[in-house]
Amino acid sequence: FVDRIKALHGKDGVLSVSVIHGFMAADVAEMGTRILVVTDDDKAKGDALAERLGRELYALREKTAMTMLSAADGIDRALAVRAENPGKPVVIADIWDNPGGGVPGDGTFVLRQMLARGLDRFAVATIWDPIAVTFCLAAGEGAVIDLRFGGKAGPQAGEPIDARVRVLKAVAEGWQSFGPSRVTLGPTALVRLEGTEVDIILNTNRTQTFEPDIFSNIGVDPMTKDMLLIKSTNHFYAGFEPIAAEIIYVSAPSSYPSNPAVTNYTKLT
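Below the sequence we write its predicted structure tokens.
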């Protein structure tokens, strides 16, 4: 569908066609998906093409959505994939703890289950926790401290995690790429849970995970990890798909209104 849309650009008076995805957390009448067609001064052609493509897109509903697993089932799947393909990390996407959708990004539900299962040699990007970052910066790189992180913005994020950690990196500005753009994480710390190879990026500026260099920029080689736990829904895919043994989408508790069937919309009409 997208390839066919791209093929229309610059032909027969069609200048561009854009798919504007919806935002299901927004309680406004304009929240739905739209097709935007720009023509060379031919409104009738643009209207007809937009309607045709819109109906095609609507017919694809429920056919292209990714499979979403519970945290427990997602971890089971990740372990199975890792056993079959040890050469690449398994990417676990905590899709609803995504700051791109407006939530804090300090959720601990999936991380806590991974730790409870005894998983090791994985990395997390990111846990939003400016307070924890401040402590790490004050302690300095190489320091071993008791740290409480995550789960502070509200009960929907889960309980904070208390752990003894080693501060591997503490920088004034972490960052990641997003295409040609540079996305700042603000003051950032990389901590490792003592006695493990579990590395967690703590950030000050809320942002979802876009590219694997969110790890490498702060000193973590993502290819050396069994699993990568990231906070994003879709924008990470282009960057992580080439390096992943498999991408697993996990639907964990969050403050994000993740099920439109039960969201109490009041302004859609």
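The first helix runs from residue 2 to 8.
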